Amino acid sequence: MASALLVDATDIAAWANRRESQGVLPKLVRRLVHATCQRVAHAGFRAGEGVQLGGWDGIVEVEQGNAFVPNGLSVWELSTEKHARGKADDDYAKRLRDPLGVDPSRATFVFVTARRWKAKGTWAAERDEEGRWSKVRAYDADDLEAWLESASAVHIWLSVALGKHPEGAEDVDNYWDGWSSVTRPAMSPELVLAGREKILERIRGVWAADPSVLTLRGESRPEALAVLAACLRTLAIDKREDLLSRTVIAGDLAAWKRLIASSEQLILIQNFESAETTGPALKKGHTPVVLLGRADSASSNVIEIPRVSREETVKALVAMGVPSDRAGDLAGVARSSLIRLRRMLSVVPEIERPIWARPEHARSLLPALLLGRWSADMEGDRGVLATIAGTTYDAVNTNVVRWSNEDDPPVRCTGTKWHLASEEDAWSLLGRHLTRDDLDRFHNVAIDVLNRPDPSFELPDDRRWMAGVLGKRPRHSNMLRAGIANTLAVIGARGDSIQITGGVTIGGYAGACVRKILEDAGWKV
Questions:
Q1: Alpha helix stretches (DSSP H) within 76-233
Q2: Tell me, what's the pLDDT at 213?
Q3: Residue 3's pLDDT is what?
Q4: In 207-265, at which residue ranges do the beta strands (DSSP E only) sit?
Q5: What contacts 269, CB < 8 A, 6 or more positions away?
Q6: Among residues 152, 443, 458, 471, which is most buried (max CB within 10 A)?
Q7: Helix, strand, or coil (residue 78)
Q8: pTM exceeds 0.85
Q9: Sequential DSSP letters for 106-141
Q10: 281 within 8 A of 288, measured Cβ to Cβ
């Protein structure tokens, strides 16, 4: 996947000047081994802080190697130091004195520098002639570039890590880091996978089989991708590195086509809308992954991502450093919507704003915001909804049905019962779009609905249980009445922090409405 947006030898050599390269170089070589060798018996490299420990930088054992990985057993020393020749001589001499249990006559010694080293071939040939090791090899930044060209997923991963952005493609590691780090505290894989153990086994089962299509549907495509990334992060290190070294996220069709042309067997994640993309990928031996959200239709072969477990979510949140009392509340939000929890914890809420909260759509959801909940089979409820919206009930219903079937929905429906998916979320995202006219209509509706006594009170005490049979039914559902009362409570408690159009806060509306309701109310009201 050649591209000016991918790192080359010059980038790698410059990167060697950065402190972080010392800890990342072992991970790079390890992934290159996994990406380019079919059967890796062992590929142990100390990365990150592990580079400070003694011992070999890497020990690799493969049944069949390639142009860069020797057959059988090989031992590796890695360096980012400026003087490659001096470091190579020191490492070579040190390991001859103490090979740490390795038989030099049966192993290949490999020295890798992230710098450019013109004399590498001469040095390796001279050491090889000594016959102290089975073979001796030396690689520099130019060799790493050539090796990366046969490992698309690893090439993309390193490019993003070094500040380049390959057009239309991303690796899973960098996607996860970006997705999880926008919250405080950062979301953990254990939180994303809380109570979803069964789906993990199904996903891993697909990866373990011959190339086939993996179709995953979550609340939204980003959630489905986050579940996939979290699943990879929880694997044992050898299996994780093997899969990460071959997994690429394609953000558009052009990138997908470029990746399909690769001779490697990749796991290709389709993070864009397009039909008929999986067939060509399968034909080339790749494993395509299709991501779906709630609004997408799916076949019977789709793996449905269940909601997280509340109990396991509490444990994960506490492990992330969230106080246990708050963890319980947040777990309830996560159970409803993991995307909504991520938005609540986000340090930059604006970037997590759902499409329904954009100015061009937000006002169409204000009736649902103000009423909170209602019953579609109650004529009185339908009338109130139309009054609040200033339009017909059918128009309002069409709108809420549409949004309930989108990713990250603001409203949900069970049978004929409608309610906000998350009251706190809805008010934080939609409240600012209210106007005085909206609140005036709500004020009038609230007084009308809550001032109506329950008709069953017209019957004697001993016959109230027959109210329904005798036609003494309320005009409005208890759901609607509770929703309106709850909205008054929200406005009263939080109204001073919610500014509506014109910069006016809405706290005063609740008090005025309640006073009006109770002014002449008898015991029935």
A1: 84-97, 120-130, 141-148, 152-161, 172-180, 189-192, 197-208, 221-233
A2: 86
A3: 55
A4: 214-217, 247-250
A5: 172, 225, 228, 247, 248, 249, 250, 289, 291
A6: 152
A7: strand
A8: no
A9: GSEEEEEESS--TTHHHHHHHHHHHTSSSEEEEE-H
A10: yes
Amino acid 162: pLDDT: 92
Instruction: Please report where in the chains the tokens 């930059």 appear, as a residue.
Output: 348
Q: Tell which residue, 174, 234, 173, has the closest CA to residue 200.
A: 234
Nearest C-alpha neighbor of 37 from the set 74, 71, 78: 71
- CA atoms of 345 and 321, how far apart (whole Å): 13
**Nearest to 38, CA basis, from 264, 261, 207:** 264
Residue 181: HSE in the Cβ half-sphere, 13 Å Cα cutoff: 6
What pLDDT does 513 receive?
86
Tally the residues of the chain: 525
* Cα distance between residue 498 and residue 46, in whole Å: 52
Strand, coil or helix: what is 413?
Answer: strand
Between CA 416 and CA 318 the distance in angstroms is 37
Q: How many helices (H) and strands (E) does the chain have?
A: 24, 14
135-139, strands of its sheet edge to edge: 40-45, 58-62, 72-79, 108-113, 135-139
Cα separation, 279 vs 457, in Å, equals 67
Taking CB atoms within 8 Å and a gap of at least 24, the contacts of 441-445 are 441/387, 441/388, 441/390, 442/370, 442/388, 442/487, 442/509, 443/509, 443/512, 443/513, 443/516, 445/384, 445/387, 445/388, 445/484
pLDDT at 150: 93
Rounded to a whole number of angstroms, the CA Rg of the chain reads: 31
Burial of residue 314, with CB atoms counted within 10 A of its CB: 0-12 exposed, 13-18 middle, 19 or more buried? buried
How far is the C-alpha of 484 from the C-alpha of 389, rounded, in Å?
15
In 3D, which of 301, 28, 292, 315 has the Cα closest to residue 159? 28
Residue 4 pLDDT: 53
Cα–Cα separations (whole angstroms), residue 373 to 302, 364, 368, 385, 492: 32, 15, 7, 10, 18
Token duo for residue 468: 């329904």
Enumerate residue ranges in the chain where pLDDT < 70.
1-4, 48-54, 297-300, 349-352, 455, 458-459, 464, 467-471, 499-505
Measured distance CA(320)–CA(188) in Å, rounded? 7
What is the rounded CA–CA span in Å between residue 67 and residue 350?
49
| Pair 302, 215: CB distance under 8 Å | yes
Sheet containing strand 214-217, edge to edge, reads: 169-171, 247-250, 267-270, 287-292, 214-217, 303-304
Tell me the two tokens of residue 165.
Answer: 């952005």
3-class DSSP state for residue 410? coil
